[in-house]
Specification:
Elements (H helix, E strand, L loop, with lengths): L1 E6 L6 H11 L5 E4 L15 E3 L13 E6 L2 E6 L11 H10 L3 E3 L7 E5 L2 E5 L14 E8 L2 E8 L10 E4 L1
Parallel strand pairs: 1-2, 2-3, 5-6, 6-8
Antiparallel strand pairs: 1-9, 4-5, 7-8, 9-10, 10-11
The protein binds manganese (II) ion.
The site of manganese (II) ion (MN) has 7 residues, from loops.
Organism: Trichococcus palustris
Enzyme class: hydrolase
Family: Belongs to the metallophosphoesterase superfamily. YfcE family.
């Protein structure tokens, strides 16, 4: 089993990133940050987490996207401001297909949601500092992948489960 912590749109809230790193350092295999940290690419948190450049990130040293390869599975992470993510998953889907990815982590909308379209799972951990959408909680998520099963569990910045958002998929 592989466990990934995903967090996004922290917008300067370095404290919570440090806290998540400390809390989960021996409990997850990967830390993914979907952009808009407003931190520099040289920040020490990026020794633990991998991030992408969001529309509020000004350091050109941050990359636009990255692909994580786990066994024969590819996971794409991007911020989403170049992919019209507030409109649909269509552009992300195209990029996922180009990369052979079956899972996409993204941010930008600040709305926590996990859904599957055309066999690709799209996961937005929500914003850990400025929540939007129907469930106004500052959130991050934990993703467990075991064989062809993917489960997403959401938590608040106080580490309280937000079960209404949880989802699981066959991938
Ligand atoms: Mn943002």
């Amino acid at each position: 089993m592989v466990r990934i912590l995903a967090v996004s749109d922290s917008h300067g809230r370095k404290d919570i990133l440090n806290e998540l790193a400390e809390r989960y350092v021996n409990k997850v295999d990967y830390f993914v940050h979907c952009g808009d940290s407003e931190l520099e690419s040289s920040d020490l948190i990026w020794e633990i987490m991998t991030t992408v450049r969001g529309n509020c990130d000004y350091d050109p040293g941050l990359k636009d996207s990255f692909v994580l390869t786990i066994g024969d599975r590819k996971i794409l992470t991007l911020h989403g401001h170049h992919h019209a993510v507030k409109t649909s998953n269509e552009k992300m889907k195209q990029e996922a297909k180009q990369n052979g990815a079956s899972v996409v982590f993204y941010g930008h909308s600040h709305v926590p949601v996990a859904e599957q379209e055309d066999g690709i799972v799209f996961i937005n951990p929500g914003s850990i500092s400025q929540p939007r959408g129907p469930i106004r909680e500052k959130t991050y998520c934990i993703v467990d992948i075991e064989n062809n099963r993917l489960a997403v569990s959401y938590y608040t910045d106080q580490h309280k489960a937000v079960a209404a958002l949880n989802q699981s998929f066959f991938i």
